Automatic annotation (TrEMBL):
Known EC number: 2.5.1.74
Subcellular locations according to the entry: Cell membrane; Membrane
Protein name, UniProt field: 1,4-dihydroxy-2-naphthoate octaprenyltransferase
GO molecular function: 1,4-dihydroxy-2-naphthoate polyprenyltransferase activity
Primary location class: membrane
A biological process term (GO) from this entry: menaquinone biosynthetic process
Amino acid sequence: MATVTDWLEGARVRTLPASVSPVIAGAGITLWEGTLYGPILALAFALALLLQIGVNFANDYSDGIRGTDDHRTGPPRLTGGGTVRPGVVLAVALTCFGLAALVGLVIIAWCGQWWLIAVGVGALLAAWFYTGGRHPYGYMGLGEVFVFIFFGLVATAGTVYIQSGTVPWQAWVAGSAVGLIACAILMANNIRDIPTDAVTGKRTLAVRLGDTWARRVYVLMLAVAMGCGVVLAFTPSTHQASLLLYLPAFAIAARNSWRMLSRGPSRAQGRALIPVLKTTGITELAFALAVLVSFWASSLLV
């Protein structure tokens, strides 16, 4: 019988910063605009978490029934490890998606932008077909595209739009940054799994690029994201001193990049990539908090 710890592992808690970070960044933009509305922001957090957890359980189910997780390097999965029956994991995933859809409808009804239903349907379909269906795009090396769009641009810009009705360019820059860091989380995960994914036919971007180039792309993703932080700090909407707020994210990103590219004992490979995966999530959260605090401080100075 599965324990609470097993279910938390199945939910992949370490990936949750990828869902809340764009909402946090979006909240900073709405604070600066003066349009933040607490109840809708809370619903946006709930929607993001439900979608992320649903994706994680759906991946657990789909990869498990395909046998992709039979020899994985990371923590054991519910389905692949035989801890929980596949049908139960699928039911949990669909429940999360259903609750996410319900929360999304409440948000749409409040803001009156019914065209957002199409965006919501697109997000749910992308969440399922990442590893689900006969031809999952996650097995074709397109997972990072979904992550960048929905856990970067859409989540950040959407958080701003449902509260203010507009999306300033700063939201797109912030969304691009958190989206790239979320892609780096996925890349770190897939670099770890290259040996097993290649055998099972899961052609992730990391598998297609190979270990060396996948590591370089991981570093490039973080570098561009940190560059977005510099852009946000040196805009008329924030004070240049706000660059200091991004230093924790810069520091963690630099350390992770070193561990990825190092040829010595500090090189992260195999199970040693798991801490890198976790700290990449912390990088995203630290970056989003920097956006929040910097734009909030700017709103106080106006």
